[in-house]
Amino acid sequence: MEVMSLIRRNSFWAAIAMLGLAQATTVGQGSPANVTFTKSIQPFFAKNCYGCHNPKLKTGGLNLEAYTSAASLSQDPDQSEKILKKLQAGEMPPKGLPRPSADEVKTVTTWIESELDLQTESDSGRVLTRRLNRVEYNNTVRDLLGVDVRPADDFPQDDSACRGAAFFRCYGSRLRGTGG
Ligand code: HEC
Fold first, then answer.
1. Which protein residues are within 6 Å of ligand 1, measured from CB?
2. Which of 2, 5, 40, 59 is 20 to 30 A from residue 107's alpha carbon, by CA?
3. Which residue has the higher pLDDT, 4 or 112?
């Protein structure tokens, strides 16, 4: 095989593998863009919760100051869920203390809910289920490689049997370069 066509062939399949990865990371960014952990969530905890849930007191066994980023909270879905429940029930901060406004609570609970959704999505692998259809595939390969090949034309028809986890069963041999 000619060197050029070998390179093209290999980078072609490498590109397709990369498409798969790009897809996996772009699907499902659920939180509203202007609500971030540092801008909205941490200040809310600091104002309403740190008084008791700090590293010294750890009231109820909970140190909220330990959560310093969105990731640290979403990596702890059990605790996130408890926080969510307490806020939704209006049980925290405890009765008798100044209450955060309903809007503030709503912002925080919505954010936690969408973080928890993200968590379950990546746990179950659902983020991987969407694949490019054949037209998108051809266009993306063309844009990526600058060559007007239409590799997806001889892929099997788009059908549910080849979606999601089945994708690699359907196309795996091609991706590994053994099937043609
Ligand atoms: C005045 C002190 C105080 C403040 C302020 C406070 N809490 Fe609590 N928190 C407690 C106490 C006491 C408990 C343990 C009893 C209970 O679970 O109700 C607790 C328990 C909890 C629990 C359950 C922990 C577990 O693992 O069971 C969560 C979640 C929680 N708080 C969240 C919050 C959040 C979020 C805030 C801020 C909006 C907050 N708390 C503010 C005193 C406080």
1. 48-49, 51-53, 59-62, 82-83, 86-87, 92-94, 97
2. 59
3. 112
Distance 62 CA to ligand 1 centre (A): 7
Residue that has been written with the tokens 């986890």 in this structure: 165
What is the pLDDT of the chain when averaged over all its residues?
A: 77
Cα separation of 17 and 112, whole Å?
32
Could you tell me the pLDDT band of residue 34, with boundaries at 50, 70 and 90?
confident
- CA distances 105 to 47, 68, 89, 97, 118, Å, are 12, 19, 11, 15, 20
Which region holds residue 89: left if phi is over 0, alpha if psi is between -120 and 50, else beta? alpha
Q: Yes or no: say if 138 and 152 are a contact pair by the CB < 8 Å rule.
A: yes
Task: Read off the tokens for 23.
Answer: 């897809």
For residue 62, give the 3-state DSSP assignment. coil
Residue nearest to atom 3 of ligand 1 (CA): 52
**Residue 60 CA to ligand 1 centre (angstroms):** 6
Atom of ligand 1 nearest to the CA of 100: 38
